[in-house]
Amino acid sequence: MTRKSVSVLVPGLPTEDGNRVPLTRLVPGQGKRGAEAFRAMDPFLLMDHFGPMVLPPGTDAGFPPHPHRGFQTLTYLIQGAFRHRDSTGGSGLLQPGGAQLMNAGAGIVHEEMPVPEHLETGGPIEGVQLWINLPKALKGSTPGYTDLQAETMPWVAIPGGRMRVLAGTWAGVTGPARTPAKIAYAHLELEAGAQFEQAIPAGWIAAAVPLHGAIRIEGTEVPADSVALLGEGDSLALEAATPVSLMLLAGEPLREPIAHYGPFVMNTYQEIEQAIQDYQAGRMGHLD
Questions:
Q1: Which one, 29, 179, 182, 241, has the greatest CB density within 10 A?
Q2: Does residue 284 sit within a domain?
């Protein structure tokens, strides 16, 4: 196999979102290279590493009601707890090691807020949210969400560490998330010096994203909260430069036009304007 090397290395952008939740925006990331990576990360649209932080007692830090249309979100929680509610009537508890796959489709309003215990006592919170594009034919699909509890994607031991597979197949393990876009997504933890290698299907993009610690890919060091977008080749190979926690992504590009404005991702800006009008008119529903 021919190993992929790093084609673009993008530092994440520290920012806040929701109600004062600190996060690092990994995709699209900072500056011109971030824009370059955004175009090349198809079918992935956005990736945020929120936290780690400790919520103080009485906090309302979280993500209050907001709309989406035209894509899917896959929210993975590393520590803490969030409660999800949406305008379809869906609700669920997001717990450590679990995830939530939400199809915004034709339009949805949702919130992710701390559980009552955190509101009273405070507590740690950390996770990753990934936006996955929907093909044009499915941007008007019925909205909804699926809980992916930790027991459906347990840690699996691998040489020098462990892996949790959320979607696609890594190291012979297939994750539970099902998306129209063909993707593979996993959380990997390695001890210093450990190595990992995985074949990547022809035509797919691939990226490695350390959350804590650093890795090396074909001689390039990739630090925490940065995105290493990989180039030509048929395998992803990396070594842990330190003890490391990282996310691995791979996917088949949709190669469709992207029009993006805030929480809406469509194919044309006329469709974006329609999404704004539909949201303002309440046609995406409400949260009571």
A1: 29
A2: no
The one-letter amino acid code at 80 reads G
Q: What is the rounded radius of gyration, in angstroms, for the C-alpha atoms of the chain? A: 18
C-alpha to C-alpha distance for 192 and 257, rounded to whole angstroms? 41
pTM flag (> 0.90): yes
Q: Rounding to the nearest 10 degrees, give the CA dihedral for residues 95, 224, 19, 284.
A: -70
Residue 165 lies in a domain: yes
* Separation in Å, CA 269 to CA 7, 132, 146, 171, 259: 30, 19, 29, 40, 6
> Structural domain of residue 52, as residue ranges?
6-256
- Which spans in the chain are helix H? 31-40, 116-121, 269-280
pLDDT tens column, 77-86: 999 888 999 9
Express each pLDDT in 97-144 by its tens digit.
999 999 999 999 999 887 877 666 777 889 999 999 999 999 999 999
Q: Count CB atoms within 10 A of the CB of residue 39.
A: 9
| CATH, residue 185 | 2.60.120.10
User: Can you tell me the distance from the alpha carbon of 122 to that of 80, in angstroms, rounded to the nearest whole number?
Assistant: 10
* Bridging pattern class, strands 244-251 and 183-190: antiparallel
